[in-house]
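Anyone able to model this chain together with pyridoxal-5'-phosphate?
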Amino acid sequence: MSLFKTKSWLECLQCHRKYDLDSVRYSCDCGGLLDLTRDLGKIDGKKLLKTWEKRWGMKSGVESSGVWRYRELILDAPDDKIITKQEGNTRLYPAGKAGEYAGLKNFLLKHEGENPSGSFKDRGMTCGITAANVYGAKCVACASTGNTSASMAAYAAKCGFRSIIFIPSGKIAYGKLAQALAYGGLTLQIDGNFDDAMTLVQEICEKLDIYLLNSINPFRIEGQKAICFEILQQLDWKVPDWFVIPGGNLGNSSALSKGLMELHELGIIKKIPRIAVIQASGANPLYKMWKFNTPFKAVKDPETIATAIKIGNPVSWEKSLRGIRWSNGVVEEVTEQEIMDAKAMVDAAGIGAEPASCCSVAGAKKLVDAGIISSDESVVGILTGNVLKDPDAVINYHMDNLKDKGIHGTFANRPISVKATLEAVKAVL
Ligand SMILES: *Cc1c(COP(=O)(O)O)cnc(C)c1O
Ligand SMILES: [Zn+2]
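re: yes, here you go
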């Protein structure tokens, strides 16, 4: 009997070898990345859409989750194995001030920072940890720039798994480190960057039989596809012209395009939106490859204030590139100043997000300025993480304390010291 109730299999991106789901596997014997693949020819798109519409707004049960609502295209796990925190169900905001700033008339921001642990990582995690549960694992691990570990620790805590976290020393935002510790993850700070941590955790998981929950794990990508399913359902399946999304390890952009490809193949959407992946200029291997038409080459010492995307050797670049090409998309880079100014606008719009998230807005603005996106096209930007994840970045920007990083507090909102008298306050107002 097979573990999953499913007709899905894992398929290598490189050599197209297929593997069934009965044993744990993260990559092909040839070294290629694996995709969870299913026979879409056996699914009736119209019926599926009706099922999804019926589930909208459910109050409880597995399908009240903004991931498992779409379970037919996520993972066929039995209900009693699914570990969910009702993730997803995040808002799609008009961009307000951030839209004016980007020069767009029709700009929406999908706030994935409203997930249970404060980032989109929860969507992949519910799926990945459910797979771990199906496989009978009791111990999970990841290397993380912060949000993956926060998410993994929260889900592991929920179901009583042990969680082991590898973080680059001194390089993760405080809110995220706080979560990892609070949820009880065994947190190992290693003396190296994210890419070093990633190499180490893969070796350790293999040797010590621990279940790996980085985005090389194909099940995590499946869960993250639900971002685009949910956006489109919120838009009554009217497809925007563009999706703009930050790119670090490039799992999320891979998931976005994979989800869209599947909806398109099922006839649920007719139009193919264009995908813009935005990288920080200090951690921009995909951008360089795209811009200069060169083979993939890792960036050695990635550096950016947007720590969630401070990754020089992204695991999923091939999957991401496949989707960008399929969607006639683009890759753009943004500077530290552009990221933080865009963030100030997202925050001042009352929406708020962490630095990496705001690449979506900084990138959209840059693409509008370059005439690649036109101001009346409809654009959805993905905000990947919550504003409270990185309070240091916020305070330092508004106190204009980032000069050593070459960042000015262009839109700084400094706190003002004032005597505790009516006159003094009146004078300030
Ligand atoms: C993980 C993360 C990213 C990058 O996503 P990838 O899938 O690694 O490209 C961007 N922003 C935030 C807030 C994240 O947590
Ligand atoms: Zn292969």
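The first strand starts at residue 9 and ends at 12.
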